[in-house]
Amino acid sequence: MIKFLMPFQKTSNAFLLKAILFLSFAALISGASAATFTWTGGQGGNNGQWNQAKNWGTAPTSGTTNDYIFAGTTAVNTTNNLTTLGATNIIFTNNAGVFTLGGNSLTLSGGVTNLSTNNQTIALQLILVANGVTFNTASNDLTISGNITDGTNTYGIVKTGTNDLFLTASNSFGGGITLNAGRIFASNNAALGTGTLTFASNNTTLDASTSLAITNALRLTTNGTIDNGSSTFANGGFISGAGTLILQGTGITEFSASNSYSGGTVLNAGRLNLSNSYALGTGTLTFASNSTTLTAESDLNISNAMLVNASSTINNNGFLMTNAGAVSGSGTLSFTGGGTNFLSASNSFTGAAIISSLNTLQMGNSNALANAGGVTVSGGALGGGTLDLGGLTNNISSLIL
User: Which residues partner with 353 through β-bridges?
Assistant: First the structure.
């Protein structure tokens, strides 16, 4: 049975009902019998220390594991000044002000739930003592600026709720993240811990709050989105799964691993840089919006099919970039970078092809541009682009020099 240590008055019922029902259900499922402490900030002033009885009615004691409910708008900058304290669940009620939980570390076995209309911040260290600890952004965002660790274990976390989870610290937990709903904003290269990030539901997003270089593996059990914002998001981890990877943001996304995901890549905005011929997995790359760019960071031999639905660019960046996959679609495709683009497939692409100055487009198939709506070689005779037919008889509808 859950023990409520605060007086259960009528005025508090409406504010605490959701939290109480939640904890009752959690206790029923787990069989746990943790005490429940509800914050009132009754000590007053700036004294938000956890060992002050007036802040709770009855204060928790060091060495115990409890449920904590944060309500109201009094003394919202709190300090855990107790030691070896544990939490099964932390809940911010629907009337909670803007809280910051700081101070000493807490062990955590259940989860954190935000039922309020405010972004709530946990600035103390959280030590996972169970797998599948949940961060539920049910009604508004959660910011975890304290380090999340799992000691010598390999415990992971689950993100639920449609609002945002901000991870800003260098985290060391190893069990990975299951992203069931909403978005995760990362602002540290180690924000995701050391495990795999799993996109477990459609419409889930990993956002970069700043330029990042992560090494976490990514698993696409469904469609997932990476949004670079306007920064550079470099992912050196292995990407697997059957889902589609959607790329958003006006910045740069970089892939360097040899990946196996099969659902394809949709480039909705910005630039995608590749330094591995297998970085796109096995699916189709779709240029879905104007001004999107695929850029080589080394010599590449890409076998992925490409669908050009908008005015887009392939930038060889001075390297040899071979496209062995079939190219289709009706958007305009520009070849830039000053190196060589080699097209070896028989393509159904019907859009216009533009070869920029100092760039070479080499044909490896007579029908590489047979259906294109014309080929334009920019730059004129001096310093212009080059169309290399490769000794083949090419079927090109029109050529503009």
Answer: 333, 375
Instruction: Give residue 20's pLDDT band: very low, low, confident or very high (50, 70, 90).
Output: low
Phi-psi region of 75 (alpha: psi -120 to 50; beta: other; left: phi over 0): left
Give the model's pLDDT for residue 6. Answer: 40
* Vertex 129 angle, CA 220 and 157, to 5°: 20
pLDDT for residue 396: 80
Residue 382's CB: how many other CB atoms inside 10 A? 6
Return the H-helix or E-strand segment holding 13.
helix 10-30
- Does residue 47 surpass a pLDDT of 90? no
pTM, 2 dp: 0.91
Query: Of all residues in the chain, what percent carry a pLDDT higher than 90?
Result: 84
SS3 25: helix
Report which of 316, 321, 325, 281 is spatially closest to residue 301, judged by C-alpha positions.
321
Sign of CA dihedral 152, 198, 99, 110: negative
CA Rg value for the chain: 27
Lowest mean pLDDT among 36-40, 91-95, 267-271, 391-395: 391-395
Q: Which residue has the tokens 């390999």?
A: 154
Secondary structure of residue 167 in the 3-state scheme: strand
In the predicted model, is pLDDT for residue 17 greater than 90? no
Instruction: Cite the beta strand spans of 191-325 per DSSP E.
Output: 197-199, 204-208, 212-214, 218-220, 224-227, 232-235, 239-241, 245-248, 252-255, 265-267, 271-274, 285-287, 292-296, 300-302, 306-308, 312-315, 320-323
CB 297 within 8 Å of CB 275: yes
Task: Find the helix or strand (DSSP H, E) in which 14 lies.
Answer: helix 10-30
With beta carbons less than 8 A apart as the criterion, state whether 75 and 48 touch. Answer: yes
